[in-house]
Structures are given as C-alpha cells and as structure tokens.
From TrEMBL:
Gene3D superfamilies per the UniProt record, alphabetical: Holliday junction resolvase RusA
GO MF: magnesium ion binding
A single BP term in Gene Ontology: DNA recombination
Record's protein name: RusA family crossover junction endodeoxyribonuclease
Top-level taxonomic group: Bacteria
Organism: Paraburkholderia panacisoli
InterPro entries linked: Endonuclease_RusA-like, RusA-like_sf
Length: 165
C-alpha cells in the first residue's frame, strides 16, 4: 500500500525560517573567505519538525509524486493583551498579522521534511499556510499526494473570497 497522506503536530511556538547568514572567516593559512551558515534557532526548529515527521512516518518510505502541503500555525496569545482581545483571539476574530511571515513558516516546515516525508520539497505543487492564535501554540502539518481528479481549492481557499470572472 502506498502512503498518500501524513499528519503530525510540532508542539511549541511556531518558528519561521531565518535568513542565511554570512561571516568573514580565515583559514589556517591566513586566507580570508566568506562562510555562510543557517541561524541556530532555525536549525533547532528544523530538527524538531524532522523528529516529529520521523515519528509520524513510522519507518515508511518517503511519499512520491506531486504533493500538497498544508500548515496550520497556532501562536500563543499574549498574556499582556486585555481579556476581551484574548477572547477574540481564541474565537478567531483576531488573527496574527505580524511576523513571522507565512511563507517563512511554510519554508522551514518543507525544508525540514526533505528526505523524511518526501525526497525533495520540489515535489510540493500546492501549499497553504494559515496563522491563528491558540492557548496551545503548535504547528499542524499535513502532506498528501495530489489527486488530479479531486478539486483541492475548497479546502485551501474560502469559497466566498474567490471571485468569478
């Protein structure tokens, strides 16, 4: 049987993919060169996502074919907010519109699952990242094969927001 979908949760506050950094370094011979590296918090979060993905995969082989990635990022509600705003955040009336950017959340998740859930994230042909508030900060990730006979948009988009042309 071929694996067609995987779902798992990464507990804790969502982290976005940090920009690659560069620093000037020197070889033992004294030659200068530019060394590029990934920030430590990005590497640590990618390890957390990969760890949860490995558990969910249960030693199965990576999913093949065209893939759909759905990420639900739930951020903690700031304790400094007034009670009315915390209630609205819990009910979904207030959503996280600031940083981190949605695309950096999706990028850290897709990069972390390379060679664990799929061979390469280039197989992802559709993706959706949602940011919401919750008392329980976490990221819920779903990866599934694209079924060309099934219309994917209703799950990924609110039908009321799609205009007819």
């Amino acid at each position: 049987m071929t694996l067609t979908a995987i779902r798992f949760v990464v507990p804790g506050q969502p982290v976005a993919k940090g920009r690659a950094r560069a620093r000037l370094s020197r070889t033992r011979e004294g030659r200068d060169f530019i060394q590029q590296y990934t920030p430590a918090d990005t590497r640590a979060y990618e390890r957390s996502v990969a760890f949860e993905a490995k558990i969910a995969m249960e030693r199965r082989t990576p999913i093949t074919g065209a893939l759909v990635l759905i990420v639900h990022a739930y951020f903690g509600i700031p304790a400094s907010w007034p009670q009315w705003k915390q209630r609205e955040a819990r009910s979904g009336l207030v959503v996280p519109t600031g940083r981190p950017d949605w695309d950096n959340i999706g990028k850290i998740c897709s990069d972390a699952m390379n060679k664990v859930v799929y061979r390469d994230d280039s197989a992802i042909v559709d993706a959706c990242v949602r940011k919401r508030f919750s008392r329980d900060p976490r990221i819920e990730i779903e990866v599934r094969t694209l079924n060309p006979l099934r219309r994917e948009e209703p799950e990924l988009l609110d039908e009321n927001m799609v205009s007819e042309t």
